[in-house]
Specification:
It is a single chain. The chain is 29% helix and 19% strand. With 145 residues, the chain is of the alpha/beta class. The mean pLDDT is 95.
Length: 145
C-alpha cells in the first residue's frame, strides 16, 4: 500500500527504501530561482537529497498553484522537484497535457507538457478530482505502480 508522509518528517531510509515516490508541493516563492515551495521541501531538496542514492527510482510529481493570480509562475515548485530528482538519476512518470489550463509560464513544463499532475484549487477546484483519477490511471498504465 501507499502511505503519505510530510517530507520534513521522512527519513533517508524511508525515501531510499521506497519502490516509488509521489512527491508534490505548492508554489509560494514566485519568481525565486530555488526554494520555491515555502515548505519543508525547500531545505530538503538542497540539504538531504544530495546525500541520497536514488538512481533509477520511480518518481511522480504533482503541484498546486493559482494559474490566474500567478500566471507567470504556475506550479514552479513542481518543476524544481522534477529538476532535483532527475539530477539524482530518478525516472519521472506521469507527464500531462497543459490543455485546459490558463497560465502564461511555468517551470513545471518540459517539451510542452507538465512534468506531472498540476492542480489549481483556487480557479479549477472542480477539475482536480477528475485530473487526479486520470493521472493515477496513467501512472498505472506507465508501470509506475
Amino acid at each position: 500500500g501507499l502511505s503519505a508522509n510530510d517530507i520534513g518528517d521522512a527519513t533517508a531510509d524511508e525515501i531510499s527504501g521506497a519502490d516509488a515516490l509521489i512527491v508534490g508541493a505548492p508554489t509560494w516563492h514566485t519568481g525565486a530561482d530555488e526554494q520555491r515551495s515555502g515548505t519543508s521541501w525547500d531545505d530538503w531538496l538542497y540539504d538531504a537529497l544530495p546525500n541520497l542514492d536514488l538512481e533509477g527510482k520511480k518518481v511522480a510529481v504533482f503541484g498546486c498553484g493559482d494559474q490566474e493570480s500567478y500566471s507567470d509562475y504556475y506550479c514552479d515548485a513542481a518543476g524544481e522537484l522534477y529538476d532535483k530528482f532527475v539530477e539524482k538519476g530518478c525516472k519521472v512518470y506521469g507527464f500531462t497535457s497543459t490543455d485546459g489550463y490558463n497560465h502564461a509560464d511555468s517551470q513545471a513544463v518540459r517539451d510542452g507538457k507538465f512534468i506531472g499532475l498540476m492542480c489549481d484549487e483556487d480557479n479549477q477546484y472542480d477539475m482536480s478530482e477528475g485530473r487526479a483519477k486520470a493521472w493515477v490511471d496513467q501512472l498505472k498504465s506507465e508501470g509506475f505502480f
